[in-house]
Amino acid sequence: MTRRGLVVGKFYPPHRGHSHLINFARLRVDELWVIVCGKPEQIPGGELRASWLQQLHPDIHVLLIDDKLDVDDSRVWAENSIRWLGFVPDCVFTSEDYGESFAQYLGCQHVLVDKERLTVTVSGTVVREDPLSCWEFLEPPVRAFYAKRVCLVGAESTGKTTLARALAEHYRTLWVPEYGREYSERKLREEGDCAWRSEEFAHIAATQREREDQAASQANKVLICDTDAFATAIWHVRYLGVRSPAVDAIVATHRRPDLYLVPDVDTPFVQDGTRDGELIREWMHEAFIEELIKQGHDFRLLSGSFRERLQEAIRHIDQVMTCAAR
After folding, report:
1. Whether residue 210 is found in the same domain as residue 291
2. Contact criterion met (CB below 8 Å) for 154 and 148
């Protein structure tokens, strides 16, 4: 006979304490059902939290419900849980005081798991208050949500890539290289010129976004990005003279960086074999500044020597990290 278990919670957000509870329960039943309770005002939202749990525990059944019930009324919760599930579970696993009465109203066994939080010393409240200090307790998709993102944008030959690499080394984290450069170098080799088509920019923006999101789950609290889809939209204007609705749509649905860093053009132009913007560096620089202001992005200018730019960048990023802990 199939033994079915139940776990109920907000998972706001999911952390390794929740994973411990779910893994403990899963080993003791044939099927485990997890009910995620969400409210519209919660960030991260219920749908995202439910998707994280399904990703982290692919062999469980996840149900998302609209959390409108009285948190202290175990009888109502039990009645609704049976209605949502369509059956009475054989056992319910909790780490809470309400577990015993909840199980009695369900008519099933209660299994109490690590009520004192001794196995995994964290709570959702603590994570929400300061996610960066709880990094060791967060799973990769949750880390991707809370990791701060810093993006370098601007004209050609202003040291963005060198800065990105140095910043990643300083923060012992990952950086996301510019896919557009990789693409353009391949295009130059294969086609012999850079006659751009609009759909190429949409492909570049989408790939950059995908690589950024993948890297965020493995980042160490902050992710350094050497350009993003926002910058790709500006390069579309530079080469084709108009904006791209397809690229703008990618920008609109992508997570906004916590900080943009814009290196100034007060450095010598270095020709690497692919650059063609020496005469319009000033125009490109101003185009980025104008668009950043227009879209309300938080950004900082970097100028001076490489060492001075690096120190300024670190100072600005440290401020972002400090504000995140408040």
Report:
1. yes
2. no
Residue 248 lies in a domain: yes
CATH of the domain at 18: 3.40.50.620
Q: Is 161 contained in some domain? A: yes
CA dist., res. 300 & res. 303, Å (int): 10
pLDDT at position 245 is 97
Contacts of 252 (CB under 8 A, 6+ apart): none
Q: Are residues 167 and 304 in the same domain?
A: yes
Domain that holds residue 272: 148-324
Q: Among candidates 18, 310, 276, which has minimal Cα distance to 162?
A: 310
Does one domain contain both 87 and 60?
yes
Q: How many domains does the chain have?
A: 2
Q: Which single residue is written with the structure tokens 């490489």?
A: 306
Q: Is there a single domain that holds both residue 176 and residue 320?
A: yes
Identity at 276, one-letter amino acid code: D
- Does residue 139 sit within a domain? no
Burial (CB count <10 Å: 0-12, 13-18, 19+), residue 128: middle
Q: Cite the DSSP H helix spans in the chain.
A: 16-26, 46-56, 74-85, 99-106, 124-129, 140-146, 160-171, 179-191, 198-216, 229-240, 245-253, 281-294, 306-324
> Are residue 176 and residue 258 in the same domain, yes or no?
yes
What does each of the 326 residues of the chain score in pLDDT, given as a tens digit? 789 999 999 999 999 999 999 999 999 999 999 999 999 999 999 999 999 999 999 999 999 999 998 888 999 999 999 999 999 999 999 998 899 999 999 999 999 998 888 888 898 999 999 999 999 999 999 999 999 999 999 988 788 999 999 999 999 999 999 999 999 889 888 887 778 899 999 999 999 999 999 999 999 999 999 999 999 999 999 989 999 999 999 999 999 999 999 999 877 555 555 555 555 788 889 999 999 999 999 999 999 999 999 999 999 999 999 886 65
